């Protein structure tokens, strides 16, 4: 009493007959062998009922339709239902649903059983893929397979906004970085910047042409010595590069700019008085309460002036210095400071900020100050409008800031207040330019003396380091 398997070879191929658990039994009162619950499996279609055999032949057909009506067109799409319509003749006993997939389709379970007859079954693709549906009946003499149903992946969303609005300055100086900003992008994975100068492609524009990250700003640096009309284009692509968004700037007038050399300033560039560059002073005094002095000291860099807190400090603090008051004694009335400094890389600049005062710890003539990309520049190459102060609010331009702890230029590394602070860029050379508003003033000066004191106070949110 055990299940019996019989391998048959017919005119149409190989056929395997499997009985139920009772196996083969002898007919009561005779010697004839009988089997119950026989399942026939054909290795080749029709092998279990060859021509001339005793079993009837049945047919199975399968088709795809957009509705329950056969032949209705169907456009594949994820979550768009369609119909599998199939039938098997009545002499088929049990039919098994098949397919070339294990997931991605709801409503059709591969391997599930059903009976013969006509069937209309609604199914829904839940993922992109190529799906073929089949039905195999008990003796495998009827078998049909659909053509592949291709369900496409939905298009990757295009970057927005499109076009991209680029905010750029009207003018720029060759060799001096400037920022370009644009709105936050959606569905973008990379952005590439290009540019032309007077219609000719410029291969290297600093970060603009070397970075591909998706941000809302990027620095542009035109090659030193270049002049002309600059046009910038930003193109952002989606994940699979199937769609892009493009923005083109208005024209930017590029000038060659200053070489950065410190030298005389003509009167028309310095509020009516010609100025000379001061590279050193006879005495530098530190602190509101004097904390020693240095003699014949250089004034060419930020750190040589504001990097020390006392005369005994062996080495200067790194930019932006230690903070506090510094007095340059015997400073020429018609002179100016052009103290150079270099801002740190973007990763270090971060939230750094600071400011200058016209300190009351030592009285001097009113001061005019500007942070510029050029030495001795008080108007032409300022990073932003807030980089210059030549008067207190309500005073005429050029009257300067008196020694009353009056606020002078503040600086930081953001662009949210371009008129209230000097918006610096990382990894860039700048100059602190300071001069007397009126070289003829006697405030804080000895009558008839050719020099006066020049006192400034500085502060920042940076912990001094050496």
Number of helices: 3
Reading side by side through the largest sheet, how are the strands ordered?
A: 26-25-27-35-29-32-33
Shape from CA axes?
Answer: rod-shaped
How far apart are the termini?
A: 96 Å
Q: What count of domains describes the coordinates?
A: 4
**Coarse structural class:** mainly beta
Report on the biggest sheet: 7 strands, mixed
DSSP summary, beta strand count? 35
What integer value in Å does the Rg equal? Answer: 43 Å
| Helix content, binned percent | under 10%
Assembly of the depicted chains: single chain
Share in β-strands: 35-45%
What integer is the average pLDDT? 85
Sequence stretches where pLDDT stays below 50 over 5 or more residues: 51-58
List strands and helices in order, with pairings:
Elements lengths: L4 E6 L2 E6 L5 E3 L6 E3 L3 E4 L17 E6 L16 E7 L5 E6 L5 E2 L6 E3 L1 E9 L3 E3 L1 E5 L5 E3 L3 E3 L19 E3 L4 E4 L8 E8 L2 E2 L5 H4 L6 E4 L7 E10 L6 E5 L3 E4 L20 E2 L2 E7 L6 E6 L3 H5 L17 E9 L2 E8 L3 H4 L3 E6 L8 E6 L15 E2 L16 E7 L9 E2 L5 E8 L14 E10 L6
Parallel strand pairs: 16-23, 24-28, 32-33
Antiparallel strand pairs: 1-2, 2-5, 3-4, 6-7, 7-11, 8-10, 8-13, 9-11, 12-15, 13-14, 17-20, 18-19, 18-21, 21-22, 21-23, 25-26, 25-27, 27-35, 28-34, 29-32, 29-35, 30-31, 30-34
